[in-house]
Amino acid sequence: VDLLYNGGIGTYIKARSESHAAVGDRANDALRIDGADLRCKVLAEGGNLGCTQLGRIEAALAGVRINTDAIDNSAGVDTSDHEVNIKILLGLAVADGEMTEKQRNTLLPQMTDDVAAQVLADNYFQTQVLSQTRALGVALLDRQARFMRHLEKIGQLDRAIEFLPSEEQIAERRAQGLGLTSPELAVLLAYSKMWLSDDLVASELPDDPWVATALSRYFPPLLREKFSTYIPRHPLKREIIATHVLNRMVNRVGPTFVHRLTEMTGAQPAQIVRAYLVMREVFCFGTLWKQIEALDNRVADAVQAAMSNHLHALAVRATTWLLHPRRLAEAVQPLIARLTPAVALLRARLEPAAASHPRVADWVAAAVPAALAQAVAATDGLFDALDI
Question: What is the CB-side half-sphere exposure of residue 166 using CA atoms within 13 A?
């Protein structure tokens, strides 16, 4: 079958290396199978604990597209977070006598579609980065192994508990030309966000006026219009800003991006996040990403992944360039304003010339619009705009 959807209670899939007793769900011992025996293209988990993690990994190694229950169910958690934060915000207005609780309850359903759209976007980006990272496979294995060793060293990760591969297993994967599976990448993605979260909240990043605009964007337009004066008073504003910023970043550039740059530059994680945000704006990556995503179901997924990954090299180089102490000392908004025109000027020269880029012909043949193919290919030379 194409899709196996589990929405029930119980654990139905394990690994061959696990016994039924070890699963701890005796009621379903007669139904349970091994991940390697699944005969579906995709397994979606609507329920929790439908598979053991080793069962997921075994299924993924056998070619099944599978993430984790935490990934497949994350929209529910995300929605709850928005609901709680919106209620906290409106609680301030109720306490000030600006509205009654009855009025609040009437207002809440009016924001359903806006919250749903934001939650779906968050989850789209999260599964997208897992897909793109998996596509790079063994090429990222060394970076991922170093990141895992770093998390172990600072006491934030126990590989055995999370069923992440040991050093010996990583060596075996490398020899076989295999990277981490999606279930393993999902765990690494979560640990990357947890590692960054506390650091960002404790840093000065949420205080930057430009970065702090993320707080307003987090809330639906209706709240921004009617309760804008209350948004800066939200008691969890620093946590909201940090979470919103790091989610969008890690879901774009992957779980090892920040750690890799800390190794390369010695910069602090919050400084790297700041430099990334500047890079994203200066090079208009948001626009390019949206244009690539607009090709969903019109071009092959592998083509979209190749184009997104093509942008990654510039992201690393430009973010590194922006970590110079003099640039770190400059406020974010003026820095963006100073660099953006130079990049735009060079882009206008490079994009027409990119028509002869070898990848452009391949992408256009795969149904990518020529203008987009040239814009992505032209990023090879855009870095020079910074030094110019």
Answer: 4
